[in-house]
Amino acid sequence: MHISLRAGEKLYINGAVLRVDRKVSLELLNDATFLLEAHVMRVEEANTPLRQLYFIVQVILMNPGDAAAAHEMFNESIRRTTETFEQEEVVNGLRNVAQLVQMNRIFEALKSIRGLFAIEAEIMNGMMISPNQAA
After folding, report:
1. 40/54 Cα distance (integer angstroms)
2. Structural domain boundaries of the chain?
3. What is the pLDDT of residues 41-91, one digit of tens each?
């Protein structure tokens, strides 16, 4: 797998954080768990149920030493989050995420959660309609 990074960009790989000082291309020659900086969510960005779930799954990927505790948090969070949404597309997406995490396909689980962000935003925007707008 080839990865291209810009100067100053970070790569999270097998629990380590790498920052490059110039444009660089890397080739991973074996299986490695990695996350590009563009896909890393900061704690202050985890401000919705799906974003909080994403953050927990991200911890599983980025901090293998804390994965057991993160898995416990994930199990509780996926249950609560699934109960929060009524939309079939979101509920089915969350079931898929749970299966991916169970199969240790963490990067794919993150991708699947990111795919649900737009739906969550639409739902939340719909909930934020003022009573005057609803009339």
Report:
1. 9
2. 2-38, 41-127
3. 999 999 999 999 999 999 988 887 778 898 999 999 999 999 989 999 999
Among residues 39, 62, 61, the alpha carbon closest in space to that of 117 is found at 39
Q: What is the pLDDT of residues 19-42, one digit of tens each?
A: 999 999 988 888 777 888 888 899
Question: What DSSP designation does 32 have?
Answer: -
> Which of 87, 14, 86, 98 has its CA nearest to residue 53?
98
Amino acid at 59: V
CA angle centred on 92, ends 15 and 75, rounded to 5°:
45
Global pTM exceeds 0.70: yes
